[in-house]
Amino acid sequence: MTQNPLRMVADEQFSVGRSNLDFFENQSGRLETGAVILCDKGKASLVLDDTAYTLKRNSTLFLLPGTILHCDSHSADFEVRYFAFSAELFAEASYRIPIEFMRLLKSHPIQQLEAAGYKNIDMWLRIIDYTYRDKENRFRNQIIKNRLQNALLGAYDLALRHANERLIHTESNSRQQEIFTRFIKLIGTHYGEEREVSYYAEQLCISTRYLSTIVRNVTGNTAKGLIDHMVIVEIKNLLQTTDLSVQEIAYRLHFPDQSYLGRFFRKHTGQSPTHFRQKIK
C-alpha cells in the first residue's frame, strides 16, 4: 500500500523527498503536518479543504497543518519535491508572524514561479535536503526552523503581491491577532460539539460582539461563518473518506439527529449529504 509521503518519521520534526502524491488519490484526510511542495514536472488537479486548484510545473504549494488534501488526478509525468514539517515546528517558526499572513496563504496556496523564483526555491530545497541528511548536526532542528521561517516570510511576500492587499501593523492590532489565533485553535478543538459564537466568546472572556468584530476585521468573514465552514469541511471529509452513515456522522459531530445535520449541510452546500456522497463516488 502506498505510504503517505508527508507523514513524519518517528522522532523527526521534518522530512524531504519526491512524490507524485498518488497516496492522496485513493484517500483524503486532514494533514497532521504542513509542507512546502515544488512541482518539477507535469500537473495535478488538487482539492484543498473544499477548493479546487491546479498544481503545474514550476509552481509551489504551501500546505498548512490541518488542511484536507485530495488529488483528483495527475499527469503521468507529474512529480514534486516536498519538505514536510510537524505542526509543532510550524508553530515555532510562525510565532509573531501577523495573522493576516495565514489568511493570505490559505487563500493563495499555489504560486506560479518565474525563472528566478524557481531557482531560489530549488536551491532552498536542496539545502533543506542536505540538512535533513546531516543527522549528526546537533543544531539540525534549529537550522530547519530558521529556514522554514524564511520560507514563510518569502511566501508572505508573494501572497501580498498576488492579492495586492495592504497590512496594517499597529500595536492595537496585535491584541486582535492574539484573540483571533486563540479563537481558531478553539474551533479546531471544539467545532464537533460547539457551534455557537457565544461559547467561544465565553472561553476567550470577551463579548460575542467583540469576537465577531475581530473575526470580520481579520478575515472579512463572520465568526459563525468560520465555525460552520470548519464543520462542513469535516462532514465532507467523513462522507468522502469513511463508510459512516449520515446518522453516525451526526452522532460523531453532536447534531441532534440525521435530519438536523441534513438541513445544516443543505443550507451551506445546496445538496443533501447522501447526494454529495453519491456524486463523488
Describe the structure.
The structure is a single chain. The chain has 12 helices and 9 strands. The chain is α+β, with helices and mostly antiparallel strands and 281 residues long. α2 (87-93) crosses α5 and α3 packs across α5. The chain is globular. The chain starts with 13 loop residues before the first strand and ends with a helix. Mean pLDDT is 85; it is low at 164-172.
Topology:
Blueprint: E1 14-19, H1 23-26, E2 29-30, E3 33-41, E4 43-48, E5 51-56, E6 59-63, E7 68-74, E8 79-86, H2 87-93, H3 99-107, E9 110-112, H4 115-133, H5 140-163, H6 171-190, H7 197-203, H8 208-219, H9 223-241, H10 246-252, H11 258-269, H12 273-280
Helix pairs in contact: 2-5, 3-5, 4-5, 6-8, 7-8, 9-12, 10-11
Jot down its keywords.
globular; 53% helix; Jelly Rolls; 281 residues; Arc Repressor Mutant, subunit A; 9 strands; alpha+beta
Report helical residue fraction. Answer: 40-55%
Q: Report the uncertain regions.
A: 164-172
Which structural class fits the helix and strand makeup? alpha+beta
Taking all Cα atoms into account, the compactness measure Rg is 20 Å
CATH class (first level) name of the largest domain = Mainly Beta
Distance between the termini: 21 Å
Major β-sheet strand ordering: 1-8-3-6-9
Name the average pLDDT: 85
Per DSSP, what share of the residues sits in E-state strands of 2 or more residues? 15-25%
Global geometry: globular
Q: What is the CATH topology of the largest domain?
A: Jelly Rolls
CATH superfamily of the largest domain: Regulatory protein AraC
Largest sheet: 5 strands, antiparallel
Number of helices: 12
